[in-house]
Amino acid sequence: MNSKYKAVIFALAVIIFFSAVTYTTSAQTFNNADELKEYLNRQPANSPDKPIKVTMTANAPMLERIAAAINSAGKYVSLNLSGNVLTSIPDNAFSKCIPLTAITIPNSVTSIDTRAFSGCTGLTSITIPTSVTNIGDRAFSGCTNLTSITIPNSVTSIGEYAFYECTRLTSVTIPDSVTFIDFCAFAGSGLKNITIPKSVTSIYSGAFSLCTSLISVTFQGTIASGNFYNVFSRWTNVPSFPGDLREKFYALNEANGTPGTYTRPNGSSNTWTLLDSGAVQAKVQFDQGVEYYNKRDYDRAITVFTEAIRLNANNMEAYVYRGYAYAVKGDYDKAIADYNQVIRLSPNFTGAYYNRGVFYYDKGDYDRAITDFNQAIRLDPNYTEAYYQRGTAYIIKGDYDKAITDFNQAIRLNPNYTDAYFNRGFAYREKGNNDQALADYNQVIRLNPNFTNAYNNRGWLYYLKGDLDRAMTDFNQTLRLNPNHALAYKNRGRVYFDRKDYDKAIADFEKAMQLDPNEPESKQFLQQARQLRGR
Q1: Among 348, 369, 341, which Cα is nearest to 357's?
Q2: Whole-angstrom Cα distance, residue 363 to residue 393?
Q3: Which of 50, 62, 111, 195 has its Cβ near the most Cβ atoms within 10 Å?
Q4: What number is the average pLDDT over the span 151-171?
């Protein structure tokens, strides 16, 4: 591979925008996640009370990529999902999408699936349509800023941990369509009052455990005997309660619920206690691990995630996060081992194959990276990033034809994918097709006038064509955008050298060596320029 290009190709290109931008209150409409990502990257930092309003028509496979675009940009977003394509919010669709503050779900959706919004700590409101019949396991767990929610009267079941640790969720209306409330569904939430309608026939263990603010519980009907297990968990320090009330709550925990309202005395210091359950304990450990991870304390995060996995070996989220943490620390073998477990637990989790492929790529195992990108594409033929990453792996392997094919696919899916044009330009250059390479770099600059490396690479193509004026213009622009671009100093020095302007050539070669002491060509040309100047 031509050494002149190594410094500008193999890392993902970073897009830098210097133009002034203003906050907009009108909703912006996008067709795909890449367009959304580019738009959000251009917006200034904002606050949760001033989210960027976005409208998108999306199918299920697009949702994870939309969430990734929002997370990557780090801008607070209020999302309106429109159209009638979606029938469910699938597993993990918006999991850990922290900047998402609000979402409107279309009427075509009938199910909010497992972990669909788990860990969306910025989410304050959500509109659930009357078409939804099922709220899945952990659907909103850890949404710590969710303050209230209306469950539509179409819902029949609320999954386990569905609203676990929604600490600001102080009120919820359970409609009389609900028949089943699963294990720890509202555990650790901020509920103060709750009414269980007659329609509910089964409430499973710990459904309202750890609700330390709960003062009133009303049962409108009788819970079927045998389906009411430790719903509120056991009390501690109960002697301060009146005897009859104490016995009633023991009865609730040990047998079944009977119609009536049960209250907690004002000023009581008593709290609900944590159910002795490995799954609950594992979730507590997991949440602590996420806190450490968000603080970039990766060693502590790994320790806590490891404990969560010990308590619950099927805790997929813990493997996902621990794998991330290992990768950040550069321990790709352990990151890959964790993603092996993620894939074991969820064999069709497209993003897991993609991320494991990236870990293999960063480790330098390009064949296995390509294998994982292949699987991600098989599961989702429109996975733009997988085509792009596979293309970069093919570039490193020197298979430029396959790289170009993959970049073509990425560009077909996202015609504004600047990185794909950029790397395809490099692949064309390596094949000796300088005209097509030049066309790709022109397109990159049209899409993003501040794409530094595109100017440098285009300048080098002009240099090879003998167009020194255009080459000089591009190298100057590269250095305006990045005054510490060693390769651009070396390349501009070559232009000065060919023009026999040895003083300026020497200055540029010296600067290139100062920025990159291990670059051999700068030293070689510097010596030649000094010799020629001395004649």
Answers
A1: 369
A2: 12
A3: 62
A4: 90
> Edge-to-edge strands of the sheet including 193-196?
193-196, 216-219, 260-263
Please state which of the four CATH numbers 3.90.25.10, 1.10.10.2910, 1.10.1760.20, 1.25.40.10 is assigned to the domain occupying 279-347. Answer: 1.25.40.10
pTM score, two decimals? 0.53
Pick the CATH number of 133-276 from 3.40.1700.10, 3.80.10.10, 3.65.10.10, 3.90.226.10: 3.80.10.10
Phi/psi at 83 (5° precision)? 85, -175
> Average pLDDT of the chain?
81
Where does the pLDDT of residue 228 fall: very low under 50, low under 70, confident under 90, or very high at 90 and above?
very low
**Equal CATH topology for 279-347 and 473-535:** yes
CB 437 within 8 A of CB 429: yes
φ/ψ (deg, to 5) at 531: -65, -45
More confident residue, 107 or 231: 107
pLDDT of 80-112, one tens digit each? 887 777 889 999 999 999 899 888 888 899 999
Residues 358-400: tens digit of each pLDDT = 999 999 999 999 999 999 999 999 999 999 999 999 999 999 9
Residue 202, classed as helix, strand or coil, is: strand
Give the whole-angstrom CA distance, residue 417 versus residue 270.
57
Local structure of residue 430 (DSSP, 8 states): H
Q: Which amino acid, one-letter code, is at 274?
A: L
Instruction: Collapse the DSSP code of 104 into the 3-class scheme (helix H, G, I; strand E, B; otherwise coil) and give the result.
Output: strand
**Token pair for residue 36?**
């959304």
Q: E strand or H helix at 100, and its extent?
A: strand 100-104
Domain 473-535: CATH architecture, name and number where available? Alpha Horseshoe (1.25)
What are the residues whose beta carbons fall under 8 Å from the beta carbon of 525, sequence distance 6 or more?
490, 493, 494, 497, 505, 509
